[in-house]
Amino acid sequence: MDEEREKRAAVLRGCTRVLSQQPTRTMRERLAELAAADGQAYGLDGLPDVYGDGPVARLEQRVADLLGFEDAVFFPTGTMAQQVVLRCWAERTGSRTVAMHPLSHPEVHERHAYADLTGLRSVWPTSAPRLPTAAEVQALGEPFGTLMLELPLRDAGFALPTWDELCGAVDAAREREAVVHFDGARLWETPAHFGRSLPEIAGLADSVYVSFYKSLGGFSGAAVACSADLAGQCRAWRHRYGGQLYQQWPTALAAQLGLDRELPRLPEYVAHAKPVAAALAGAFAGVPGARVHPEPPHTHQFQLWLPYPADTLAQAGLRLAEETGRALFGGWRESPLPGLSMTEVTVASSALEWTPAEVADSAAALLERLSADPGR
Q1: What is the pTM for the complete model shown?
Q2: Last residue of a domain, which of 261, 293, 323?
C-alpha cells in the first residue's frame, strides 16, 4: 500500500494539471509552509500551547466568532468531538437516543463508537439518500433527545437540503423537545448553497462540529462550537477521552492558515464545481450507468459513477497522468453492484485552472484508455 501511494504521489507531483486532488506535499514542504507563516499574525514568537492554551485557545475563539457561538472546544479528531458532544447532550436531555441518518459519519465511518464507547443508540428518520424532512422528523415513532444533521451528507453525494427544508427539520426537532447538533465537518462550504452566512447556518443548531482538514486543508483536528456552559462539559469529557494533548500548536497553526487561505476561496470552488460536473456528465453521457451525483453539485464536491472495476479505473487514470501530465481523479471504490465504481471529485485550487473543454478532453482520453484495457 505504501509503495502504491508513493508511486501515485510521484506521478501527481510530475503533472502539470490536477483536477480532483492536490499533489501530495512532503513533510519538509508542509513544515516550510508553517515556518513561512506571518509570525506576528499567528503569534509564532510566543510560546507553544500547554494542554490547550495559547494558539489552541486562540483558534477556539476564532471558530466561535466565525460561527456565532459563545465558545468552541478543540479536539484532535472529529470522531472524538462527535462522541463527546453527543454524550453531553444525552446527559442534559436525559435521552441516550440520537436521531441521525444511516449514511451519517458516526454510522458509517466511526465503527459505531457512539454506541460502543458512549452507550448511545440511534434512530433513523429516513433511509433515503438525503437529509430528513420535517415530516419525517415529526413522524419518528419513538422519542429522541438529539437530532444530528450532517451538512453536507457526504455519503449521499455531499447532499444538502434547501434552506427551508433545513429550517423545517430543525423546527420539527424543537417541537419534539429535542436539541439539534450539526455534524458540520464540511459546513465551511455550505453558505453558497444556502445563500446564508456561516453564523446564520450554524445558529439553527445548539452545537456544531467542524473539521480543520476537510475543506480547509489543515493537518487534522476539529472543534465543537456551542454555549460556554456546554463547552465546559465538553472539555471535561475531552480530557476523559484522552484528547487533552500536551501540545498541538502545529495543528492549530495549520488550521489558522486554512481559515485564512482556503475559507475565502470556497465560494469560488463551489461555483467552479458546477461547470466541471457538467463537463464530466457530458463526456460520459454515452457510457451506460455513468452518472454525476448530485447534478448540479451542492458544494465543491460530488460523486462520479462509472461502470468499470475500481482497480481498472485507478490504473487507467494513472496511465493518463503519466502520459499526458493531467490527472483527473483520486481513489475509486466499488459499489455493491459488480463493475460499478465511484470516486469523489473535489474541486479546489488546482481545479480552477481547468476549463470545461479541458475536463471533457481528458475525460475522453480516460475513456480511450479504458476501452483499450482488456481487464474491463
Answers
A1: 0.95
A2: 261
